[in-house]
Amino acid sequence: MGSQLTIVLVHGFWGGAAHWSKVILELSRKGYDKIRAVEMPLTSLADDAERTRKMVKQQEGKVLLVGHSYGGAVITEMGNLPNVAGLVYIAAFAPDAGESPGGISQANPPAAIANLAPDSDGYLWINYDKYHESFCQDMSADEALVMAVAQKAPIATTFGDNVTDPAWKHKPVWYQLSTQDHMIHPANQKHMAERMKPRKLIELDASHASLASRAAEVANLIDEAAKALG
Q1: What's the pLDDT tens digit per position in 188-205?
Q2: What pTM was estimated for this model as a whole?
Q3: Are 7 and 68 in contact (CB under 8 A)?
Q4: How far is the C-alpha of 15 from the C-alpha of 130, rounded, in Å?
């Protein structure tokens, strides 16, 4: 199955490629043997798009891009590469041309916005003692502790970086919306998803970390997209 298409997983803010660990296992059990998870610097949209672009260019054959959270903005920015066959958004930003994740968030600020704290070097963190309730309230305390301690903070200015030519205007799209998301307001997710006219939109009663708390359902959506793209 996996020999026909490579699935490239793109993480978001406050996490790295390892946030996909449960989805990777689910996809492997389904027979996918070409799975890659990019590790981005989270220093700017341009930097993160370029790092992801380089990984995608290394793949032979068609690629299905899957973005979680801010990773959705990244795949939107760099997903027009010719070997990209489709895009899957997991509780993710999907900006239009001239839009940024920060600008979209202003329409309906997320519940956990008060739990974000910049440091003196310009990085933006989720307060460690608020990570569980902010990012992954439907996961165990132990899992949340590990995610909080290992969080990868972005440069705060990355929130304001605008997308240029959105790939979702040119490629097939699938979207998973988290109805209990405290990091990207569900109303913003709904707005972004519906204007893309996705081939499928699913809603999960899940936190922002649906890729970890609802990995089976997320993997099923990715599988459906991969099969549709042949």
Answers
A1: 999 999 999 999 999 999
A2: 0.97
A3: no
A4: 15
